[in-house]
Amino acid sequence: MTSTGSIIYLEDVTVSYDGFKALSRLNFYMDRRELRVVIGPNGAGKTTLLDVISGRAKPEHGRVIFGDHTDLTTLRENDIAGLGIGRKFQTPSVFVNLSVWDNVELSLKRASKGVFAALLERDAGGERERIAATLSTVGLEDKATLMAGALSHGEKQWLEIGMVIAQDPELLLVDEPVAGMTDEETARTGELLESIAVDRSVLVIEHDMEFVRQIARKVTVLHQGTVLCEGPVDQVQTDPRVLEVYIGRRRETADARG
Amino acid sequence: MPRREAAAVAAAALLLVVVLPICNALPASSALHVSDFRLNLFGKFLAYAILALGLDLLWGYAGVLSLGHGVFFGLGAYAMGMHLMLEIGAKSVYQSALPDFMVWNQVKELPLFWRPFYSDVFTLVAIVVVPGLVALAFGFLAFRSRIRGVYFSIITQALALSAWLVFNRNEMRLGGTNGLADFKTIFGFPLNQPSTQRGLYAVTALALLVAYLVCRWITGSRAGKVLVAIRDSETRVLFSGYSPARYKLFVFVVSAVLAGVAGALYAPQVGIITPAKIGVLPSIEMVVWVAAGGRGTLVGAVAGAFGVNWMQSWLTTSYPDVWLLFLGGLFMGVVLFFPDGLVGAVARAFGGMGRLTRGASFTATPTESARSRGPSSTGHPRPEPVARPPLQ
Question: Which domain holds residue B10?
Fold first, then answer.
């Protein structure tokens, strides 16, 4: 594979739930090693976009191409994860009854994640180092032996990001990572995502416009299941169509910033 | 396995496999004598404990609650029972080569599916393979369709009900309501001899030890962690690249095989197997053993199977009317006051919760887990970190 070209390419994708078109003939394209933020009002289809890429939702129409030529539309979630697409959910989803260390250990990329491999394999070479490195990336090296259930909300979010990094994905899908975080945690998360995007592609869905301004280079605005506009964050913010869609939300954000 | 646990297992194994049969062989006048009746009772409890181990692996670790394990128990018991019926031969009441119930049902010829059970080897293989295959087929369909949680429990209950209906039918040529009974010998050894029963007991105790070690090996491997992870967040497991369906199918089959082995050891020791042991009610009782003993600990399952059944045998002889009330009360008590069961309550009393329970802290050393459990000891109401499925 070359290092240029698209990492993910959606062509004419339609997904509907009971007649409601969550995505409607969507075309979406992302470069390798790009950090892209997708914004849009509620119901615009942001999470559905991640669902389609990660295999949770199946499009009734269109193609989803990963890398040069892998069509994802017929694959299951765990197979797609194995190909190198990691997903971080909006609400923290970690294994609360396992230690932080074990959470990362289970997520590590491996040749086989089948039952018998998991029964028979013992610590493969370098596994401990990889887990330790991942934990230090997300700043949880001191909490390795804690049960994941004992972590704070923000720490659980970072742990889950760490678990996704441990999968060594080429593409990370991150759904509203800073919801419910303090300002300080939000800033740290932004730095974390930017450091990840140095050698991977990252697709972030976010509501928090301040956070978007912190991390975004290129922003895609979704509206009613299709791309409304796309471009650098400043350009998108002044786009009259975006202003119209966001008119209510913009005032809220302005108030919040005081 | 930590050294202390290994020592405890070795001591328990020595007691159950070696000491008890020796005590049984002592003359009745000896103070240490264990009566044939009691040893036989223990043999039955130990067979139940084998089943409980498998159920705990499935429910306590992977969070998959089966309300149909009586079926797998029954398949193993019937496989053994069919062989024992054929061993009776012409020594039966009607002195026919056919089992008695076939004679009075006017069956003239041994049904085809009975014939392989003449073979000892076939029978031993069937005890493992038949429950395993049924679980494989049933589990494959259920897990592939992503049936989970309470829906899975309900369809396993439906399985128990339909199996019960099927085994009750005389047309099935399995003895109908009366089941299979009046066994005379097992692999040539007369069942009415105390020495045969002692041997059966010892085999059961040994089988329990092996079953425990196998389960412990599974929970101690990475696959064991995946099972706990499935209980916590099946979606995260899926998006981490694992197929939860395959892992659940694996434990479902393992637990069905253990249930089949338990049934096969139960039948010759109790001397009868009827459809009453495979229906909805016995299947739920099995779940109560595990819940009462403590889920996700393996040890709790064994303790629960032993304790609840011992209590049952005591209460049904001394106070026959209160047994069912007690069983219901026990289940409610466990749900309301001791969600971690006997083992959880004991461990909490001694402050070592993290070491014993949840099967989750395999790798954590005692000090580490004590630290992780820290907030509870400082008196703060710690939010229960266990996203355990409710007892359904």
Answer: 3-365
